[in-house]
Amino acid sequence: MKLFPTPCLLLALIALDAVFSGEAFFSADGQSVTFVSTTESDRLHRIDLDSHKIDTIRVSLPKDQSITSLTIGADGEALFLTESAAWVHDAKGTRKLSDIGVENAGGLAVAPPKGSPVADWMFLAGQDKDDASRRIFYCRKPGSNSWNSTFCRRTDRVDAAVFTADGRFFFASHGDLWEGEFEPDDGQGAPTTLNGVRIAPVAFLNTDASNGGSMYVHTIMPAGESIYICLRGHHLGQLLRISLNQKPALQDSAMDHHYTYMAKMLSSAEIIDGEGSPLFCTAATAAGGRERVFYLKDHKLYLWTRDTGRAEEIGHLND
After folding, report:
1. Mind listing the pLDDT tens digit for each residue in 146-166?
2. pLDDT tens-place string over residues 63-76
3. Could you give the angle at the alpha carbon of 168 between the alpha carbons of 152 and 243, nearest 5°?
């Protein structure tokens, strides 16, 4: 199975049954998307959205390491995780930032350089070192070689972390969309506690034997006036758009506010792509005032634009 852009230029092999978070990101100007294939996960690929030309970006990794999560840094560089370390790739090449020492790490995110008390900190989700049944967030201070665990009460699984440019923090827990904030309460400014609240119950859950299965939040992509969400299940997928409430959910803790907030978020939900097949390499942008979403589905690369409400095929897989 080979991936060809439009027109047919050979790119890479992609396996559609691999599941990991953080597979793509738009450039700051919205002119290109960088993504990682799951069968050639020792390298990155960048597609130009005007020409549809795809370039392969070689990264220098040990032979036993592969890219498991990908995001953009403050200066446009590629930040990514492998099985045992965090890395950066820019014009100077590939450099290891630190070992991570976390099992099943994924969901790499970076706080913006301004507008957040954890500016430039890196976050990932991984197995709790003290309780293998839990999945928690770990954080790394800029320049540090260590990752500190964060505590989130009353939920044993968090993932899919993402920050907006102004510092708001969204994540997934038990399949749904949440918003949260970190408390720097260790005396050193480390974000050791996560306060969060569910803002949209978007997981598709059912027990119908005739149905293909359930779907859960896999990737969260704030862009402009929207939050785009990729849902993924065993062999299903869906792409949603929800209007972004401009007021952070945690500004009002009253219970009636919480239900009103969730109802407003959910009432704005619209299905962008709901044909059922899994979606991969999802990313969103609002660069230039245009909200767009990039994704891979059924061997084809798509670029969806909110202005038109349509997805354009910009590449395809060729068996």
Report:
1. 999 998 888 889 999 999 988
2. 889 999 999 998 88
3. 110
Length of the chain as a residue count: 319
Q: Output the domain CATH number for residue 249.
A: 2.120.10.60
Query: Rounded to an integer, what distance in angstroms lies between the CA atom of residue 218 and that of residue 234?
Result: 12
- Of the candidates 117, 134, 135, the one whose C-alpha atom is nearest the C-alpha of residue 126 is 135
Q: What pTM does this model have? A: 0.90
Domain that residue 161 falls in: 2-318
State both tokens at 207.
Answer: 């027990």
Nearest to 36 by CA among 59, 60, 6: 59
Q: What is the mean pLDDT of residues 286-305?
A: 94
Those residues whose C-beta lies under 8 Å from the C-beta of residue 234, and which sit 6 or more positions away, are: 212, 213
- CA–CA gap between residue 40 and residue 30 (Å, rounded): 24
Torsion of CA 115, 117, 123, 128, to 10 degrees: -150
CA–CA separation, 118 vs 41, rounded Å?
Answer: 30
